[in-house]
Hints:
Elements: E1 2-8, H1 11-19, E2 24-32, H2 41-45, E3 52-59, H3 66-75, E4 84-85, E5 88-89, E6 95-99, H4 102-118, E7 128-131, E8 136-137, H5 145-148
Parallel strand pairs: 6-7
Antiparallel strand pairs: 1-3, 1-6, 2-3, 2-8, 4-5
Amino acid sequence: MDIATFAAGCFWGVEEAFRQVQGVxxxxxxxxxxxxxxxxxxxxxxxxxxxxxVVRVEYDPAEVEYDRLLEIFWSVHDPTQNDRxxxxxxxxxxxxxxxxxxxxEAAARASKTSLEDSGRCRGPIVTEIAPAGPxxxxxxxxxxxxxxxxxxxxxxxxxRP
Length: 161
């Protein structure tokens, strides 16, 4: 199995999108890209840890290619929004691809360039592409949140705990 890590705003909906993909064997939501060891949700939401809300995707590369995961990543959020997605504002909601290998880095950069060149975005893409550092698993009530709560997607007006 391989691992991919993506930040695309609120991790609840992003996790659900990846859970639906054939070849994805597991998902977990958590925090990455920051400077605090084992941060809590409250600390990350405070915006002082440098972490982004992320989804860690475990996948079988024989069933789903990393490029397909990148396509899903680009489709589930607006990569032109800086430090926000919809009603969620702050650096913890930034767009980022945290790569785990040189091959993932090259694929991420190529897919970003391809999207920029396509003209499909109405502004510059602000997605960060950075090496994957430590992944800190979020509290259990965040894991598969939408599934546990009988929701198909995050309503834009839904307030988070």
